[in-house]
Design a protein that fits this description.
single chain, mainly alpha, Serine Threonine Protein Phosphatase 5, Tetratricopeptide repeat, two-stranded antiparallel ribbon, 24 helices, 8 strands, about 5% strand
C-alpha cells in the first residue's frame, strides 16, 4: 500500500476519533467518509489492514524522537535523571507546583504527560478500528485475520500497559466509536490488565515468531505479556512468558562483534549493538521489536531523534559556563569554520534537558570492566574528554588550547552551571550521526522498544519476587557477562539490584517511571518489604516504593536542589501516578473520569468500574 493511502487512512482514523472531544453536535452523529481512503474503503484486504498496523507503530514511535521527546518525562519522574533546563520557570522540576491537572502538560518547555495521555489513546483508537472492522473483511482468510488481530491486540495492550502504570485506573474503550461518546467511566487498573493479558494470550498463538524488522512478532508479544503478568503480580506466568522467548531459539543475545564497525578494533559489541545501521540488521538476533526511522524514507521523523541535544551537557554556551583556568572562553557557543578540535562534531551539541543523576552515571557502576561504562573505547564520555577549542586561545598563545576540560583549578570552579553543563553520558547510545543539523543534535536511527536483554531482566525480576535468587542471578548474569562484568551471586539479588542492572543496560530504552510504578504496585499488593518498609494499596498515594526509591537515589529531589534560576526540585508520593488532564475530565460531560489522589478534583471520585463496558 502506497504512502498516500497510509496517510489518508491515518487521517481518517483521527477524524473519527476526535468526535468524542468536540461535543455532541448533530452533524457528528452520522459519520461521513472523508474520502475513498476512509476505513470502510481501506480496511478490506490484508494490505489495507497492514497499513493500519503501520499507523499504530508510527504513533508508538514518536515517544523517542524530536526536541524535548516525550520519553524525557519518564526519565525525570525517576531516580535516573532530572530536567536540566534552568534558564526559565516551567520545566518539570518542582513537581508539586507544576504537575497539576490544569497545567500545561504537553510542551517541550514543560513536560509531556499530556502527550502520553493523548497519544496512547490515539494508539488505542487506531487498534480498535482494526479490531472492530476485521470481522467484516470477507476477503481475508481466518488465519490472516488472526495474525492481524493478534498484532492489533499487541498495540492496544502496549498502550494500556503504559496508561495503567502512568495514570492508574483509566477509561477503557475496546471498540471503534462512530459517533461522539461523552460518558466514559474509569475502570480499575487490574481489570484492564486482565483483559490485555487475555488478548495477548490469543496473540501469542497466532502472531508468527519471525517477521520483518519493525513488524510485530511473537517474541515481542510474549515480552509484553511478561510485563503485563508482572503488573498483575502473576510471577509464574511472567516467567513462562519470558522463558518462551528466551528458550525459543530465534532470539539470542549479541555476544560477538557485528555490523558496520565490526572491524574497528577499539570498539566492542556494546557499541555495535547501538549503531543505527545495526539495530535492524539481519545479523542482530537480540531485537524483539523496534520502531524505524531512516533519513529520506517514508515515515522518517523530521529533524531526527535529537538524542544528543536532549541528553548530553549544554557545554557550548560560552562564558561564564565553561572557562579555562586562565579565565577565558573555553569553547565557543557556535562551531563555525574549520576547528582543529571539533567537540560538537565528535560528541554533538547538547542542551541538558535530560540531566543524568550521580546514581545513573556513577553509583551503580560496580565493575571496572563493564563495557557499558568504558571510557577507553569511547562508550562513555565525561566532560573531561572535551578539549578547550576556542580559536582565540590559539591565536593568543594560551597554553590551555587543546587541553582537556577541567572542573576545578586551584580550588576554583570553572563551570558556572554544573547542573546543566557538566555531567557524563553514554556516548554509545546517544551519538547518532546527524547530517541535517549543524551542529549535530542527533540524526535518524531506529529505536529498540523491546530486546532480549530486557526479557532476561524481566524474568530475573519475577524470580526475585518469588524468592528464587539463584535463578534470578543466572538471568542477570547473562546480561552482565556480555558486558564483561563479573557475575553476581544469589545473595546479591534484590529488586534494587534488578533496577540497577536495568539502568546499566536499558537507559534511554525503558520507560523508567512506568517500571517504577509497576513495581510500586507489586510491593503494595504483596506486602514484601523494601529496605525494611512495607506498603499497602490503601495508602498508595501517600506511601509507596516509587517515592522511597526516587528519594533514596536521586540526590536532586532528596536535597531539594535549587537551580540557578531559583527553582526547587521536588517530588512527592502522589506523583507515583500522573494527573488525568483536566480537559479530558471536563469533556466527558455524561460520565465520570476519576482524578488521581493528591491532585485537585480527586475528592469528587466515584468507585472505579470492575468491568469493561463499551
Amino acid at each position: 500500500m502506497n504512502k498516500n493511502i497510509k496517510t489518508a487512512f491515518l487521517l481518517s482514523v483521527i477524524g473519527f476519533g476526535t468526535m468524542a472531544l468536540n461535543g455532541c453536535k448533530k452533524d457528528w452523529l452520522t459519520p461521513k467518509p472523508l474520502s475513498i481512503y476512509s476505513p470502510e474503503n481501506t480496511l478490506v484486504d490484508v494490505a489495507g489492514f497492514n497499513a493500519a498496523l503501520v499507523a499504530c507503530s508510527g504513533n508508538l514511535r514518536n515517544e523517542w524522537y524530536g526536541d524535548g521527546s516525550p520519553n524525557i518525562s519518564e526519565e525525570i519522574f525517576s531516580e535516573v535523571a532530572v530536567e536540566g533546563t534552568d534558564d526559565k520557570t516551567g520545566p518539570a522540576q518542582n513537581m508539586d507546583q507544576l504537575i497539576r491537572p490544569d497545567a500545561n502538560l504537553n510542551s517541550v518547555d514543560f513536560n509531556k504527560i499530556g502527550w502520553y495521555w493523548t497519544q496512547e489513546y490515539v494508539g488505542i483508537r487506531e487498534a480498535n478500528v482494526i479490531i472492530s472492522r476485521l470481522a467484516a473483511a470477507t476477503a481475508i482468510s481466518d488465519a490472516n485475520k488472526n495474525i492481524i488481530l493478534g498484532k492489533a491486540y499487541f498495540f492496544r495492550a502496549y498502550d494500556y500497559y503504559r496508561l495503567t502504570q502512568q495514570f492508574g485506573d483509566v477509561p477503557c474503550p475496546t471498540k471503534e466509536y462512530l459517533s461522539a461518546k461523552t460518558d466514559f467511566a474509569t475502570v480499575k487498573r487490574e481489570v484492564i490488565l486482565a483483559k490485555m493479558k487475555a488478548d495477548l494470550e490469543f496473540a501469542v498463538q497466532n502472531v508468527p515468531w519471525t517477521a520483518d524488522k519493525g513488524d510485530v512478532n511473537r517474541g515481542a508479544v510474549y515480552h509484553l505479556l511478561a510485563k503485563v503478568n508482572l503488573a498483575l503480580g502473576l510471577f509464574d506466568d511472567a516467567i513462562a512468558a519470558a522463558s518462551a522467548v528466551i528458550n525459543q531459539g530465534t532470539y539470542k543475545l549479541m555476544n560477538a562483534r557485528f555490523g558496520v564497525d565490526a572491524n574497528k578494533a577499539n570498539k566492542n559489541v556494546i557499541w555495535d549493538l547501538h549503531r543505527p545501521d545495526n539495530k535492524a540488521a539481519a545479523a542482530n538476533t537480540e531485537v524483539l521489536y523496534l520502531v524505524t526511522d531512516r533519513q529520506g524514507t517514508q515515515g522518517a521523523f523530521g529533524g531526527g531523534c535529537q538524542w544528543m541535544r536532549n541528553a548530553i551537557p549544554f557545554a557550548s554556551v560560552g562564558l561564564p559556563n565553561i572557562k579555562t583556568p586562565t579565565g577565558k572562553l573555553g569553547m565557543p557557543a557556535t562551531q563555525g569554520g574549520a576547528l582543529e578540535f571539533d567537540n560538537l562534531g565528535l560528541y554533538g551539541r547538547g542542551i541538558g534537558r535530560c540531566r543524568a543523576t550521580p546514581y545513573a552515571y556513577s553509583w551503580i557502576w560496580d565493575d571496572a570492566n563493564d563495557l557499558r561504562h568504558d571510557t577507553v573505547s569511547g562508550n562513555w564520555m565525561y566532560m573531561e574528554n572535551l578539549v578547550y577549542n576556542d580559536l582565540g586561545l590559539k591565536t593568543s598563545g594560551d597554553t590551555c588550547y587543546g587541553k582537556r576540560f577541567r572542573l576545578f583549578d586551584k580550588g576554583n570552579l570553572l563551570c558556572a552551571d554544573t547542573l546543566r553543563d557538566w555531567f557524563p553520558w553514554p556516548h554509545y547510545k546517544l551519538f547518532i550521526p546527524d547530517t541535517e543539523n549543524n551542529p549535530q543534535r542527533g540524526g535518524h536511527t531506529d529505536h529498540y522498544v523491546f530486546r532480549l536483554a530486557e526479557t532476561y531482566l524481566l524474568r530475573a525480576e519475577a524470580y526475585v519476587w518469588k524468592g528464587d535468587m539463584a535463578s534470578a542471578a543466572a538471568d542477570v548474569n547473562a546480561v552482565r557477562t556480555r558486558a564483561k562484568c563479573a557475575p553476581y551471586t544469589a545473595a546479591q539479588m534484590s529488586i534494587g539490584t534488578i533496577l540497577d542492572e536495568r539502568q546499566r543496560e536499558l537507559y534511554w530504552e525503558e520507560p523508567r517511571k512506568t517500571e517504577l510504578t509497576r513495581m510500586a504496585y507489586i510491593f503494595a499488593k504483596t506486602g514484601q518489604p523494601y529496605n525494611g518498609k512495607t506498603y499497602t494499596l490503601a495508602n498508595f498515594s501517600t506511601s509507596n516504593f516509587f517515592i522511597d526509591r526516587v528519594l533514596e537515589k536521586n540526590t536532586f529531589y532528596a536535597k531539594n536542589f535549587v537551580t540557578l534560576h531559583g527553582d526547587m526540585m521536588k517530588i512527592s508520593p502522589y506523583h507515583v501516578l500522573w494527573p488525568i488532564p483536566q480537559d479530558a475530565i471536563l469533556a466527558n460531560t455524561d460520565g465520570h473520569i476519576n482524578q488521581n489522589a493528591g491532585y485537585s478534583g480527586a475528592a469528587n471520585n466515584v468507585a472505579a468500574s470492575d468491568k469493561i463496558v463499551d
